[in-house]
Amino acid sequence: MKEFSFLLVALTSWISNCAFASPFQKSAQINQFNLQPDSEVLIALTEVDIAGTNADRSTFWDRVSSVRNDLKNRPGFLGASIRKEVFGSRAWTMTVWTNEEALEDFVYAKEHERAMKEGAPAVRKGTFYRGKKKWKEIPIAWEEAERLLSEEGRTE
Known about the structure:
Elements: H1 2-16, E1 19-21, E2 25-26, E3 40-50, H2 54-71, E4 77-85, E5 90-97, H3 100-107, H4 110-119, E6 123-134, H5 142-152, E7 154-155
Antiparallel strand pairs: 1-4, 2-4, 3-5, 3-6, 4-5, 6-7
Helix pairs in contact: 2-4
């Protein structure tokens, strides 16, 4: 019986940390940038801990969808992926940009600002990271993204 209890606890712990991610999708406009493997790009990572009411969480995910749709049209956008815990409350985004200006234009764009305002009640905590990588290193593994967020990210 002890072994069964141990296995059940281990399995529960493992399942509670399971996450699924969308494949990294490159922008349709990527060919216009003439990227080389050693080209420097900007990666932006976000981790949020989601809480709030069902309505708050629903609004949050609706806004995530609207922002994802808007990304396609953003100048300097190179690609993105999103990841979410299956049974937990954490979610992550990874976006890649040609430069800081392109990322800043996105952050202050109407759709993203709307998402930040309307989705905020569902966010218990957010952690953010920006850094430069070589294009050939993109996409980074989610384990690396979590490490960067943990060690170098800023939390709000």
